[in-house]
Each structure stands twice: as structure tokens, then as C-alpha cells.
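Possible regression after last week's pipeline update?

I re-ran a chain I had predicted before the update to compare outputs. Posting the input and the new output here so someone can diff against the archived version. Not blocking, just want to make sure nothing changed silently.
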Amino acid sequence: MRFTLLPGLYAVARLEPGAAIPAWSDRGAFVTVTRTAEELSIVIEETNVPDDVRAERGWRCLKLEGPIPFDTIGVAAQFTGALAAAGVSVFVVSTFDTDYVLVKEDALPRALEALA
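New output (post-update):
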């Protein structure tokens, strides 16, 4: 399985479910916005998140080589399974073409070793 480490640090921001999508969420090479009945989550480079916004900061982003066909089975499970076995917590985002796996910066060396 091949992947690329995206540059920079990322944050996972949480806003109220009815909040408008903020202007600051439209910056950077990788941004994802997800609304559910319980929350509005935004994954974005952490420098774009205002200090007064609730966010979990300090994530690094691994991009799996894609596109990954929809009928492919077990890609995310295999990737995250190796990280779980190494004791690395993850935050996973899937798009039409591929998957992104975020790991905390302090766990990145352990994650890279597990994936080698």
C-alpha cells in the first residue's frame, strides 16, 4: 500500500450542527467538511482554524495512493489495522477517489515504522 505524507499540521474542528460553513474552511490543499445531526466537523490545516474554535490540533495527514475503486475490499482496514497494532490512534476521511488517515504528530514516527 502506497501513501504520501501531506505537508503541515491539521486540525479537526467541531462546530454546532446548525452553524454556517465558515469562510476560513475554504483554504488549503486538503479540507473536508462534514455535517451531521450532531455536529459540523472540518478537517483543515490547523493554521486556518481561529483560536476560539473548538478543535483537536496536531494531526499529520497520510494520503493513500488512489483512486481506489469502490469495489476494493479492506484497504482502509489493512492500513488502519497496521496502525492499531502499533498503538497509533487514527482519524479517517474517505473521498470519492481515496482515503486519508490522520495521526497525531507525536505518533508519526511509530506510524511510519508500522507502515514500512
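Follow-up from reviewer: compared with the archived run. The chain has a mean pLDDT of 96. Marking as no regression found.
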